[in-house]
Amino acid sequence: MATRAGLGWIGKNGLLITPALGPAIRLSSLLTDAPLTAGAPIDRSRCGGCRACVDACPAQALTGALWQAGMAREMIVDVEKCYAKQLEIMERATGIRTDLCGKCFAVCPYARRPSPDRAP
């Protein structure tokens, strides 16, 4: 829905990437009859030749493929490899078997670029 509303595109890490906040966004749903304006749908990745997330992935779960609307998630990320590595990393670091990594998120240039309404 987010890409169809023009909010962003799917990155090489399989996450929604927005121009202003990169992958540093979480979506929620709200039902309303308010007159809201949607942006133009985005149907292609804007990651270009960037491979920061692909190269940083400790699970080597990212294929490096550029997303296009309708593309299967499996063509971008091996979710099972990603999840297994998250469990391994957190259990080793904390002793707790939970899923958390964030390496692909942390290295995204869109996440590190200051937005116009946020100080560098």
Question: What are the key terms here?
Answer:
single chain, 120 residues, mainly alpha, two-stranded antiparallel sheet, 4 helices, 3% strand, globular
Structure description:
The protein has 120 residues and is mostly helical. The chain has one domain (1-114). The protein contains 4 helices and 2 strands; from the N terminus they run E-E-H-H-H-H. The protein has helices spanning 52-56, 79-94, 103-106, 109-112; strands at residues 9-10, 16-17. The longest helix has 16 residues, at 79-94. The radius of gyration is 16 Å and the shape is globular. The model has no long low-confidence stretch (mean pLDDT 90).
Largest sheet: 2 strands, antiparallel
Q: Count the E strands.
A: 2
Return the average pLDDT rounded to an integer.
90
Percent of residues in β-strands: under 5%
Concise account of the structure shown:
It contains 4 helices and 2 strands.
Task: List strands and helices in order, with pairings.
Layout: E1 9-10, E2 16-17, H1 52-56, H2 79-94, H3 103-106, H4 109-112
Antiparallel strand pairs: 1-2
